[in-house]
Specification:
Blueprint (H helix, E strand, L loop, with lengths): L1 E10 L4 E9 L2 E6 L8 E4 L4 E4 L1 E6 L4 E2 L2 E2 L4 H10 L2 E9 L6 H12 L6 E7 L5 H14 L3 E5 L10 H13 L3 E5 L3 H13 L6 H5 L3 H18 L2 E7 L2 H11 L5 E6 H5 L23 H12 L5 E3 L7 H4 L19 H10 L6 H15 L17 E11 L18 E11 L2 E5 L2 E2 L16
Parallel strand pairs: 1-4, 1-5, 6-9, 9-10, 10-11, 11-12, 12-13, 13-14, 14-15
Antiparallel strand pairs: 1-2, 2-3, 5-16, 7-8, 16-17, 17-18, 18-19
Helix pairs in contact: 4-7, 7-8
Length: about 450
Amino acid sequence: MSILIRNGRIVTASEDYVADIYIEGETVHSIGKNLPMQADQIIDAGGMVVMPGGIDPHVHLQMPFMGTWSSDSYETGTLAALHGGTTMVIDFVLQTQGKSLYHALEAWRGRSDGNCYGDYSFHIAVTDYNNDTRQEIGSLVENEGITSFKTFMAYKGALMIDDGQMVDLMQEVKRHGGMVTVHATNGDMIDKLIAKHRAEGKLSPLYHYLSQPEVTEAEASGRFADMAHYTGVQGYIVHMTCQGALDAVRRATFRNQKVYAETCIQYLVLDASLYEKDPEGAKWVMSPPLRQKKDQEALWAGIDQGLVQLVATDHCPFTWEQKMMGKDDFSKIPNGHPAIEHRMELLWSEGVAKGRISANKYVELSSANAARIFGMYPKKGCIAPGSDADIVIFDPNERHTLSAKTHHMNVDYSAYEGHEVQGKCKTVILRGKVAVDEGKVLIEKGYGQYVKRKAMK
């Protein structure tokens, strides 16, 4: 199968020009003006932006959490991602305390393998670090291509590890050329505030937000950066939400330390005023919570300054019935919201269309930096001869409105209901096949492949 894309405006992290792209098999064969090749399919991309397929490095599909499961399966979640221009996701395997990392990996593969429309990979969340766990790290990096290990500084008794375990894990992961990522919030402070608000009968969604003030994230981000500096491991903070946490990363740069930072599209677009709605505020209960307008401004500035490298989603949807498990107690509301389908279009609309970022920066944030940081570049995250033909043909001007009536995620409400965006994914190509065209799905479940990633030695 071959495809010739003609006359598109090709945008990568470093280039912006008009040319043709010839795809042969699963990869890009050649790029140039007026290419003379014959192809099985010719796509006229005149007036369109042609860019690398999006990579969402933070999703939770079919994940067990708080007595239920996130509502998007690997089938529905990766298909919704493709509709929105994201051709690859990195999900999180969660270790069960008392069991091995490989035990968890096998459970996640049982749900994902053969069921994905888009390409996928895994991080592994280490929740029980001990001598047995330590011995698995090298094999996971070398044999499974899993090079990033997530830690939690919150959720004591379920996911959290202590600082001593964190340092030991960092030292082992560094030895194998991997990276340690972190949910950086101070779990002890948060647990104390949750207990206080519940004891006072303050149970609405607003108190989810008030139980996780900015200081809980700022403190933990600084502590994580200090431990990463001490061990020399490459560190990465997931779902950064606020000015205080960003300042912790900025301070790290003063000692020539690089701490990678990811924010999520919701923290750039939505704010904490939504929690004042009861019970509707449950739709936006996530951890960390939405923040203030000043934090949105700080994150956009952090992107501009190069302190924030990626925009993800932390996609972890729950139906309204599931959310209502906590209708009488905010602490029982499953944490997470649906966004996997909307990240690319929202980021273009709020970023490029509004003049906050360039088109090149957009590709960095949505694709190229994820490929570089997580060991997939130039296979993923770019348009170049030899790279996977993961390509989005995007209309930068088409306006449309986001709604649960039209989205493809397996959830019965939208966190962005009625939000008008400028920019729409028209055609999405995955490894040389047109996967979605004008909303029509042209590939089968199982076309998505597992992607092994390279260590950073």
